[in-house]
Structures are given as structure tokens and as C-alpha cells.
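Translate structure to sequence.
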């Protein structure tokens, strides 16, 4: 039997329009949000006070203002200031930047990775405030990126229900393996997807504590990363409370209850994916070779 799902998301302006890697202005996020905001589920949005009416107006277009709760947070950085301060210090460390394959990666930006860490904090907080049902889905504010997977926004006009096991559902991309965390941080490898996570209310606090401790552990050895890596560390720490399932970006919504959603059709899908993955790998290797050559030249000149 299908069960009600409370959706939790968040939007904060952390200056991403100025990022070197994948810049996104607020208008892009709002457009992406409007693409899936038709979902008829109760929605809890954590955001800055000045964004409240804009978000409510988008939901109001679909008659869902009354099913939307805005939790205003004036100062995002006051939630875990000590963790953020440590992350900011690490982000400026030349040894950390030299360690990473891509020194300008988005996940190297402390404010971004800090916000990604807080996804599970927001879910935990929603439970503590009595705003959520027994089943909660974290959903990224920019879910589907305006049509990356699902092509028809009007198909989001339904109430998403499903009966999940009382475990945290993590969805991972590509092959899962047991590579050391240091290697994953160095290569910035994709693994567990943060765009959608299923969390029973009874485990919301457990997930937050696992995520928080994972970031602290990472910081203690002079590293930072975003939610994908933090979720992986959390899973490895306590796998018994998780279901780890292979999927694709944004696909779990269709797999677990949204059968009618139309996916983007790509000709020769496997060939396209293989080419994209190989090209991405080649670019990473090329950037690494250039970086290593620069470091070697710098060392020789010192």
C-alpha cells in the first residue's frame, strides 16, 4: 500500500552564479524548481526570508500554497559555524588543492559543501518541528535541472506516494566499489547521488549525526568534499540502516511511484553514455597531466 511522503528541500543564495565550475544564477534554480513544484505532496522549504514569497508564489500557481511550509533561516552559517570555519581554512590550503585533481571544483568551495552537508540537518529539523510524516524525501531544489531526465513538467502534477522500507534509501551512480575515501576525494568520483534521498522520520537524526561526523572526520585529516562523499562515508560507517540502490540521476522518482513520468529519449543510449563517460575520464586525465607538469616545473624552479 502506498504511503504519504513529505518533501523537504532548501534554497540559499551562496553566490553560485560566480562559481568557475557550473555557475548557476538564482533565476536558473527558480526555473528548475517551477518544473517540479506541481508535486502535490506537502513541501517544506528551508530558505532565506527574502525568498519566501517568491517560492510560495510558484507553488501558488499550482494551487499548492497551503501545502507548502517555509522555514526561514536568517543566517545559514550559524548552524554549524565551527565546521564551516574549518572548511574555509582547508579550502585555502595549498596541500589540499594540490591533492585534488580539480583545484577549482565546486565541491572545493566551503560554502557549497557546507550547504550540501546540511541537507540531512534540514530533514532532521523538519521532524523535530513536527512538520513531516513518517516517510520523508529529500529533493534538491533544482531537481531534474529543468528537463535533464523528465521532459514534461505537467506530469509532475500528482501526489507521490510509495511504501518504502524503514531504512534510508541511498541511490548511487555507476559502479559501487570499496576504493579508499582518500582516493575518491582525490579523483572527485561520483557515487551516491544527493538529489533524492528517502528517510524514515525515525532515522532522520541518525542520518544527520552520521553526515556531520563524516564531515568532521574528513576535516580532521585536512580535506573537504560535498554530500556525495559524506553520504558514502555514512553508509560505510553504518550500512545496516541503509538500502543502497543503483540508479541514474533523478530516476528514483519514476522507479518508486512515478511510473507515468516521461524520460528523455536518447538514440543509442548506451553508446552516448559510454562516450560521455570516457570523454569525462579523458578530460580528468588530461587536466591531471597538465597539473602535474606545472607542479614539476614549479618544483624544479624552486
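Result:
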Amino acid at each position: 500500500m502506498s504511503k504519504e511522503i513529505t518533501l523537504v528541500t532548501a534554497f540559499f543564495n551562496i553566490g553560485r552564479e560566480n562559481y568557475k565550475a557550473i555557475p548557476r544564477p538564482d533565476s536558473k534554480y527558480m526555473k528548475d524548481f517551477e518544473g517540479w513544484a506541481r508535486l502535490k505532496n506537502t513541501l517544506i522549504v528551508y530558505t532565506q526570508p527574502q525568498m519566501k514569497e517568491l517560492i510560495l508564489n510558484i507553488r501558488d500557481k499550482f494551487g499548492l500554497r497551503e501545502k507548502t511550509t517555509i522555514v526561514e533561516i536568517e543566517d545559514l552559517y550559524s548552524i554549524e559555524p565551527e565546521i564551516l570555519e574549518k572548511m574555509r581554512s582547508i579550502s585555502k590550503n595549498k596541500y589540499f588543492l594540490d591533492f585534488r585533481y580539480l583545484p577549482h571544483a565546486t565541491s572545493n568551495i566551503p560554502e557549497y559543501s557546507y550547504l550540501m552537508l546540511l541537507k540531512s540537518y534540514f530533514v532532521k529539523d523538519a521532524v523535530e518541528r513536527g512538520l513531516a510524516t513518517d516517510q520523508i524525501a529529500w529533493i534538491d531544489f533544482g531537481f531534474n535541472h529543468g528537463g535533464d531526465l523528465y521532459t514534461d513538467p505537467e506530469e509532475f502534477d500528482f501526489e507521490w506516494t510509495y511504501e518504502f522500507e524503514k531504512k534510508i534509501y541511498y541511490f548511487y551512480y555507476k559502479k559501487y566499489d570499496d576504493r579508499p575515501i582518500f582516493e575518491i576525494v582525490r579523483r572527485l568520483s561520483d557515487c551516491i547521488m544527493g538529489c533524492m534521498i528517502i528517510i524514515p522520520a525515525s532515522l532522520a537524526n541518525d542520518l544527520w549525526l552520521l553526515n556531520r561526523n563524516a564531515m568532521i572526520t574528513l576535516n580532521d585529516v585536512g580535506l573537504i568534499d560535498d554530500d556525495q562523499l559524506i553520504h558514502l562515508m555514512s553508509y560505510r560507517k553504518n550500512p545496516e540502516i541503509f538500502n543502497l540502490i543503483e540508479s541514474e540521476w533523478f530516476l528514483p522518482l519514476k522507479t518508486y511511484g512515478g511510473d507515468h513520468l516521461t524520460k528523455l529519449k536518447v538514440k543509442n543510449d548506451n553508446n552516448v553514455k559510454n562516450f560521455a563517460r570516457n570523454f569525462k575520464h579523458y578530460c580528468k586525465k588530461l587536466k591531471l597531466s597538465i597539473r602535474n607538469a606545472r607542479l614539476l616545473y614549479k618544483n624544479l624552479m624552486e
